[in-house]
Design goal:
heterodimer; A: alpha/beta; two-stranded parallel ribbon; 8 helices; B: 396 residues; mainly alpha
């Protein structure tokens, strides 16, 4: 009986899961950020356009516009408007998936080897793409806020494409 | 051996806690005595008016004031940008002539003759201090302050294996040693910058606060993990080169663009190799602050070069300075007390120090590329002249 309940619960959870990568997944993070203004006010302003690119057979790039304490715009972009972003974090799906699963397993805190800075510092597996070093430095200026933006993914279920 | 006191009459008085510097006091008396005509006249007038029961009310006259144009807050409150939009308040002179404390935008011209001159205010050229992003960075700095006592999860700190703990504590000792120069350097110049450049003074004040916090957090981390370890002569020479820079722009280049750029890389490496969530949090918080200082350094240099009447001469002066500065900074960043703990942390233990050193070599190359990119962004191409090798010395 208990097993059946657990299976039902798991099935329901999967049904409510938001697929990664998708616009909806990032929109959910943006909504969570905007609902938690008190935390954002504690962390301080975030003013940048950040690109998040999931590469592989089908590349998906989502740009999130951060303004003051909110994520004000979330959109899928193509190569033509890539320069709209101050910087873009690019990685294969496996890298993003491992990070998101680590955040989930850590209840909102990734393992030591799964933080944004840890993954991007040497340029691999997460690549920090930019045109302007001054705009690139915003990734560092707002790093804690960006980390917490992703950490919020622990509070909802994420599904990934079958490998 | 000194003679011990045998009775109360043998006791010598303790030195005064703050001995009065006689010479300084005398010169202070002399200076204000010589200038007495002006200030005593003001005092006399004030006495007469008050005794006569008269009111001046001249301060209510608005003919020469920027009165009545009210600043309106933007979405994030009342910023300097918002007040600077009001006519009369945002006009920053290319060269400051009001060498006193009178605020920019106040009625001050009628009083110039009777006002003292603050001789310390000698950095009067805007292109020695201004950066187009300085107001943004000031607002950002205020909004992103954090508290090294409360915002770090100190109670989660766990002891590491001895080699890793010592390496972490040595890295923290290095950072404690170097962090306060980034407070002392702006402090050294802050009191030389006139009030007309109030936005710059405000930003530099936040940098001083940031660096106080960095020094504090690394000191606390070291003492909580075992203790501070070794200071190093190589670090000290680099810090001296920054402190004794001949101009604000040159020192800001060496400190904010090169030095803090390198420390930013170390913070990012520190976050990357952190063995505890406590260390992760410390380095991540610090790297944000450091990146603001780097951004000011880039744009201050750009503004300086863009506005110098003879750009080529200004560039050559900067190159001469950087030729020396880079090599002295290199002295610090090749010290065993920095490179070795970093290599141990990167490798994961003292038995893997060689592998760690190899990884540190990769970070070195990344850093030099970032440094040259930032110089380029400022309009200062160091690619042909940079004295710091693009490859780590231990890999050459």
């Amino acid at each position: 009986m208990a097993d059946a309940q657990q299976q039902d619960s798991a099935a329901a959870g999967t049904a409510n899961a938001i697929e990664f990568p998708s616009l909806a997944w990032f929109e959910r993070l943006a909504a969570m950020m905007n609902d938690n203004r008190a935390r954002q006010e504690k962390l301080g302003y975030v003013d940048c356009v950040a690109g998040f690119s999931v590469t592989g057979t089908e590349t998906l790039t989502v740009q999130v516009t951060f303004d003051e304490f909110e994520a004000t715009d979330v959109r899928v972009t193509g190569e033509t408007d890539s320069d709209r972003a101050d910087f873009t974090l690019e990685a294969e799906l496996e890298t993003w998936q491992a990070m998101i699963e680590s955040i989930r397993d850590g209840d909102g805190r990734p393992a030591l080897d799964q933080t944004l800075n840890r993954l991007s510092h040497t340029g691999t597996p997460l690549r920090l793409a930019f045109d302007d070093p001054l705009r690139r430095d915003m990734y560092f200026r707002f790093n804690q806020s960006l980390q917490e933006f992703f950490n919020a993914s622990a509070s909802f279920e994420t599904s990934f494409p079958a490998s | 051996m000194s003679k011990q006191a045998n009775s109360p009459t043998d006791l010598k008085p303790l030195p005064a806690e703050h001995p009065v510097p006689e010479e300084s006091l005398e010169s202070y008396e002399l200076a204000f005595g010589q200038q007495m005509n002006t200030w005593a006249e003001i005092l006399e007038e004030n006495h007469e008016r008050l005794h006569a029961g008269r009111f001046s009310l001249h301060w209510m006259e608005t003919d020469k004031a920027n009165w009545g144009r009210r600043a309106k807050p933007s979405s994030r409150g009342m910023t300097y940008t918002d007040t600077n939009r009001v006519k009369g308040y945002g006009d920053m002179p290319e060269q400051a002539t009001a060498l006193n404390f009178a605020p920019r935008g106040a009625v001050r011209d009628p009083y110039v003759d009777r006002m003292p001159v603050i001789s310390a205010y000698d950095v009067v050229d805007r292109n020695e201090v201004w950066a187009e992003n300085v107001i943004t960075l000031y607002e950002e700095a205020k909004a992103r302050q954090w508290n090294a006592t409360r915002d770090i999860p100190w109670d989660e700190l766990e002891p590491l294996p001895e080699d890793l703990e010592k390496a972490t504590c040595q890295l923290c000792t290095f950072l404690t040693e170097v962090e306060f120069v980034a407070g002392d350097f702006p402090a050294k110049w802050l009191h030389r910058i006139p009030q007309d450049f109030l936005e710059v003074k405000s930003f530099l004040s936040t940098q001083i606060m940031d660096e106080a916090r960095h020094q504090e957090v690394f000191r606390k981390r070291a003492v909580a993990g075992g203790g501070l370890l070794h200071a190093s002569p190589g670090f000290e020479w680099a810090l001296k080169a920054i402190m004794e820079s001949p101009s604000h722009t040159m020192g800001t280049f060496l400190l904010n663009l090169l030095g803090e750029g390198l420390v930013l890389s170390i913070f990012r490496s520190g976050e990357m190799i952190a063995k505890t969530h406590v260390d992760k949090e410390i380095f991540r918080r610090c790297l944000q602050d450091e990146a603001r200082h780097v951004s000011y350094g880039v744009m201050e240099l750009k503004n300086h070069l863009d506005n110098m009447p003879d750009r080529d001469a200004a560039l050559e002066d900067m190159h001469r300075f950087a030729d020396v500065g880079e090599m002295v900074i290199l002295t610090a960043f090749t010290e065993a007390a920095l490179v070795e703990p970093l290599a141990i942390l990167l490798g994961g233990g003292i038995d893997r120090i060689e592998q760690g050193l190899e990884q540190a070599g990769g970070l070195w190359t990344n850093f030099i590329e970032e440094y040259l990119g930032r110089c380029q962004r400022a309009g200062f191409d160091r690619s042909e002249r940079c004295g710091i090798p693009t490859q780590a010395p231990w890999l050459q």
